[in-house]
Amino acid sequence: IPEAFSQASSTNSIYIAFSSICFEFWIYLHFDYSSRPYTDCYNMEHAVKNKFKDYHKTDKHSIETIIQHLDTARRHAKLLAQSQRYESSHIYERAAYTDVHLLIDFLLGE
What we know:
The protein has about 110 residues and is mainly alpha-helical. About 20% of the residues are buried. The longest helix has 14 residues, at about 70-85. It has helices spanning about 1-10, 25-30, 40-50, 60-70, 70-85, 100-105; strands at about 20, 95-100. It starts with a helix and ends with a helix.
């Protein structure tokens, strides 16, 4: 991961949308705010399923439900970013991090 970030930062045309510990952290933010560090993807996915019992990564119904909560996820991600504004560690070293909301904002033209 550090090499990918290094390569991306050496150009002005590559941006990385990143979630730590895994993408499910972004999904979790659709249902609740958290800055809790998760140790692995299994625990993160379990936390998502505690909030959204029918969650399955590739299920169309799951995706439709998640999209309905997109504004909540964006709000939670912005709160997390605000709380970490003075962090000096690389984003890929943080236990709870996402910037997927920046990609969503870009795609929505905001």
